[in-house]
């Protein structure tokens, strides 16, 4: 990393040194740390993804905690460096922590935080947005207009899919998947249909994922990423889906075999996808960007102002809580007490994924 580093400092005489590897939305997270005696250093290096060497330079000889990003490789080398600098905590500004070697963190006694609970609705909203955009070919139509190709209404111009009366499948019905289902299966709309003598919206639990793949007209993926869900949607399972189905992924990129997906899109032009995540971010597999039946956005599912500011606040409080020796909240999805700007947050860490391994105390507030 070039010297001097591009660092913004708050409360330079603070007792505890907390480093953020990136500028984060909002200022509340900074104020909460400063009010508790922390010196806050924010890296403004003009580099999208920091290397391990960059972060080691940021940690330096004394560092009590680091707030990092899911693009960074937090393993043995970084946790060793943080431990030698006297650090006690690292928090991802993310709910996922596939970039973190938790066993290495345990080895050096460093708490690993994440930010669940605050991303649920905003991620589900993007999945719903991609579902509708793919069904009605909105991105294609937008590009058509911007290219000056519209010469007047035509019967076959950008004909898409009507979702009314169609089957929507949700694979991974946890918090986000359930929120997506609530958005797509609106109760009031179902009542409206029933009142007009039409088939109301209904739901059922499928007996298998293969049943969902075969029967659904629209499928939204929301599983966690682990060994059992890597390439969950592969060539064989894509072939099970309807030729004009819509597939949406706002979970993790490697859940889909992206090479197989590109082939399937090429062979089935009426099959459409909406993708927020990719197998090898920030890259896409060859050919995906050329597919007109694919909508691709750059991992923005959590990118609402309230959510991103909340993620920054939770990540900061994870680090602060460990520095101060606070207990860990027993329910990591109960985030409202920490995000209420009209009151001080509880004296607790919102979510530490390795709290049991480190033997940290738990609070029910």
UniProtKB/TrEMBL annotation:
List each copy of the D-isomer specific 2-hydroxyacid dehydrogenase NAD-binding domain by range: 130-301
Signal peptide start-end: none
- Keywords recorded for this protein, A-Z: Oxidoreductase
Domain of life of the organism in this record? Eukaryota
Residues forming the D-isomer specific 2-hydroxyacid dehydrogenase catalytic domain are 30-327
- Give GO terms: molecular function aspect only: glyoxylate reductase (NADPH) activity; hydroxypyruvate reductase (NADH) activity; NAD binding
GO cellular component terms, A-Z: cytosol
The record's section on InterPro entries has: D-isomer_2-hydroxyacid_DH, D-isomer_2_OHA_DH_cat_dom, D-isomer_DH_NAD-bd, NAD(P)-bd_dom_sf
Q: Which family does it belong to?
A: Belongs to the D-isomer specific 2-hydroxyacid dehydrogenase family.
- The identity of this protein, by name, is Glycerate dehydrogenase
